[in-house]
Amino acid sequence: MSLDTVVAPTIHPELLSAFSQDEFNSHVMTTYGRFNLALIKGEGCTVWDTEGKAYLDFVAGIATCTLGHAHPAVIEAVMAQINTLTHVSNLYYVPVQGELAKWLVDHSCADRVFFCNSGAEANEGAIKLARKYAHTVLGIAEPIILTAQASFHGRTLATVTATGQPKYHKNFAPLIPGFQYVPYNDFAAIESAVAELDGRVAAIMLEPLQGEGGVNPGQIEYFQQVRKLCDEKGILLILDEVQVGMGRSGKYWGYEQLGIEPDIFTSAKGLGGGIPIGATLCKESCNVFQPGDHASTYGGNPFVCAVALAVCQTLERENILGNVQARGEQLRAGLQQLATKYPDICEVRGWGLINGLELQAESKINAIDLVKAAMELGLLLVPAGVKVVRFVPPLIVSELEIDRAVSILDRVLAAM
What we know:
The protein has 13 helices and 17 strands. By secondary structure, the protein is an alpha/beta fold.
């Protein structure tokens, strides 16, 4: 079955002709290196452009459209809440915010939740929480948070500083003090850094699987050693679950793949299924925020919480984690078959439905070239570095759609 046989939903004719890239570029800041593609419609795991061409979406808003596009549960939640109450201040109780917080607590190791609007804001909240804990509980005057090289935690000044990739720091100095970097999956390095800093480390902040850094899964032994070290030294363990959480790993949370529990973790992206929401979650033992310490005008408003709650309940009700596990195994098996066929492929790795295909360092093919070639054949993928292509489809992706994606990639590699 080809994408040409997919029946397109109704696309209003004016959308097919009204868009102008030149006009867009003359008004919008050029902070993105955009592909030459304008999308205007989506349904399930398929999106359509302004020419009416269909694409199989294995980007999902970069691991965000949990239930795909135009899912009935999301539409119903959006329509019901927009017709009831869109926004009120957190000066008042928001009942649906409490319902969402309860679901998250019931389905994780957390005891408390703070809602915001994005992954960067969620990580900012985690950093502030760790710093206050350091000052008020640990008695550290100038706390240090250790993060990993090749990590990605956001674009605000604090989270871009926490990000262990110098290319994101360029031209934004002076950066925020209080961060140091260590190699990922290297316990000796993190143990040495803690010893050298001699009581100044307040927290260790890691991704269970590094997404932007090349789809690098955390090693179980490493994370268990880090958890033990944190327990021994009184250090908080913060896990950035923005990309890998909300079922994408095949479990609700990436830390479940590692057999540990964090003190603080963050969520965003897939939590709202495409509606902007973020969350900082923590255990009661480090819940040191008091009124006035932290806030967000839009955070946890009725609209976003109603949609996020619908996403969470649908994940559970329809056993979508089972689909993530099965389709993830299918995708990795298909990519492994391509790896045996094409010597340009170095490695296939990942969890659930966050997977990376790494190209050989000496290969003439790079990730951008591969993504562009796949786009021409109707498959949307996203780079995760110069030599890694990321596969993050909606969690509802079907067996047939996985086969179709692998088939398209096969054609792309054969041509390249």
